[in-house]
Design a protein that fits this description.
four-stranded parallel beta sheet; alpha/beta; 19 strands
Length: 539
Amino acid sequence: MKAMIFAAGLGTRLKPLTDTLPKALVPLAGKTLLQWQIERLKAAGITDIVVNVHHFPDMIINYLRENNNFGCRISVSDERDMLLETGGGLRKAKPLLLEVGSRESGNSNEPILICNVDILSNIDIPTLLNAYNPDEMGVVVVSERDTQRYLLFDEENRLCGWTNIATGEIRPASLASSPNSLIASSPKVALLTGSTTTKQRQPIHEQLLSGEINLLIGTHALIEDSVQFANLGLCIIDEQHRFGVAQRAKLWNKNTRPPHILVMTATPIPRTLAMTVYGDLQVSIIDELPPGRKPVQTLHYVNTRRTSINQFIEQQINLGRQVYVVYPLIKENEKMELQDLQNGYHQLCQTFPDYRISMVHGQMRAKDKDEQMHRFASGETQILVATTVIEVGVNVPNASVMIIENAERFGLSQLHQLRGRVGRGAEQSYCILLTKVEMSKDTRKRMDIMVATNDGFRIAEADLQLRGPGDLEGTQQSGLPFELHIASLTTDGQLLDLARKAAMEILDADPLLEDMQNRIYKQRLDYLRIAAGNWGEIS
């Protein structure tokens, strides 16, 4: 049998005594609270104990050392960096508890007796242990006292949740089937974004560290250093192309053991696509549209065709459809001869006086953006004038036309993402790319690719060919940081596949690269490991 004494709390109920010492060392009838608890456990035959510490931790550690652990085998779970709740404290102490069980009887799955250092009772511990059933999660001992929050038990006297009688809140405990599991089968989910207030963030941060929150959904706010996890096991990065390599690497470092990573995107960054070619990433491709949807028809027009485009807009709206118009700039810029959103909005209002028009851009307040998007999504407005803020996360099935002004200013990935805002209903949808009459060779290629295919991977391959693979050992996501003297990533896939297979054969025959002919490979790998940041592992 093993036990854990929770002694890490601040002892606010014992102030002012705990202003200068931890609650575990508060004296009572000639002994400290910690001594009382240890001696009661020892009298019941429990001598393998874990004690967690936070408030004045060194005082507790020295006290145990000076008293030779009271003749017990005591391990300390140090929480001085962050005070954890019950669940988080158990998680942090798990290696110590497993070690204790294995040391005592060879069985690391022995039950654990948990007690608070500042709660003394007359409970008969041997009787309590006899009440424990290995097939159950555990046994809970509670006292009759006035409180706002009460535990709930079912007909078989098993814990099934708690209720707050002041607020009326009821929280079910829906425990997992495994008796050794500490995680509820219904995970607790939280949302964290840039607009989450400091007051809202504090409990989220605490519950993440304690392990109470099982699933966190959010934006780039999840990358912040202040967001720490008890044991991060899986990261799913949607719209991967919106994150830099260094940003994704931060998620890797939120656990001592890097979590599993799943990245999703309709348009892989050239660097990511290069990693798939080299075999550094496992790839799954969804190449079918949802049932009932039609491929988006993409058209390329020069801006001198604006009259016919306006006629097409009017035709689609009269059919009951809605239209997006995307601009590269919010305001007019004298240095760039580009269409801007503000002038475009006024022109559309003049051209279509009978239609209602919404406007959305990144400089608007979140409340105003939400209001304008709601008007468009509900069908109250027929045209939405926007910047690239609608590139992701917008779903209006009735919108069937996407017009992109100055399309030459957008990359292939952005164009494909913007095109993805239409084609979400059963009707035929259209994406119209408007450019200047005079275009560069690369611009012409980009427009031709967009018109030719809706396949995100084909577009990504073309993007890779146009912009270069980036730096697989660095953070550069496109370009040419090095020159391949033998192969081309875009045209020599077969040669690269042969090279990959040859590398795998070498590792299968000599996993540690100890053979003389393989030492040059080992030297290179050792160099990469000590290099500042092994970016080659970040997808």
